[in-house]
Design brief:
By secondary structure, the chain is α+β, with helices and mostly antiparallel strands. The protein has a domain of 109 residues: Alpha-D-Glucose-1,6-Bisphosphate, Chain A, domain 4 (2-Layer Sandwich). The protein is built from two helices and seven strands; from the N terminus they run E-H-E-E-E-E-E-E-H. Strands 1-7-6-5-4-3-2 form a seven-stranded antiparallel β-sheet, with helices on one face. Strand 3 and strand 4 form a beta hairpin. Helix 1 packs across helix 2. The protein is globular, with a radius of gyration of 15 Å. It starts with a strand and ends in an 8-residue tail after the last helix.
């Protein structure tokens, strides 16, 4: 079963900044910890990150749900410059309610100079039928709020013109 959640917001910055910041900035400043989600510390094996087909290993602090260290793999599936990113998170090192992967889409639409609509969508893919009701609740009650937390971190980085770590 796939459970989709999405949020939208308007960023007051350039189209390029709204597009590049979420995936090309330091991910430890984006995923700063929230509830059961541990803080990301760093990434490895990230050569070429930002190009379609690239991947990186994500590392996190120890938490109630994670042993710490290598936690998952991020992949860039598609990149349409100043339009959208399609990405995937998989190879979870801890059990996450029967989910085998998450796919995300970050879409930007310029409304006016320095005014950009951001549509942030995630699809959580589950492989355990008896967990589907719990998966749906997790997506609606926790994951959507986590996405709002991440979006605000991205907004702050975009407004501060945080340097990109990747090209």
């Amino acid at each position: 079963m796939n459970t989709e959640v999405s949020i939208s917001s308007v960023f007051e910055c350039s189209l390029e900044r709204a597009f590049k910041t979420p995936l090309l900035c330091d991910v430890s400043k984006v995923h700063t910890g929230y509830g059961i989600m541990p803080k990301v510390t760093h990434c490895t094996e990230d050569e070429g990150w930002g190009k379609p087909g690239s991947s990186k290993k994500v590392h996190v602090v120890k938490s109630l749900t994670q042993k710490g260290g290598f936690a998952s793999v991020d992949r860039i599936l598609e990149r349409a410059e100043n339009q959208y990113w399609l990405f995937q998170v998989d190879q979870f090192q801890s059990w996450i309610l029967g989910f085998d992967r998450f796919t995300g889409k970050w879409t930007v639409t310029e409304l006016a100079p320095n005014r950009v609509r951001v549509d942030y969508q995630f699809t959580l893919h589950s492989t355990v039928p008896w967990l589907y009701p719990l998966n749906w609740l997790f997506a609606r009650l926790f994951w959507q709020n986590y996405m709002r937390h991440v979006l605000e971190n991205i907004r702050n980085l975009a407004y501060r013109k945080e340097p990109y770590m990747y090209a």
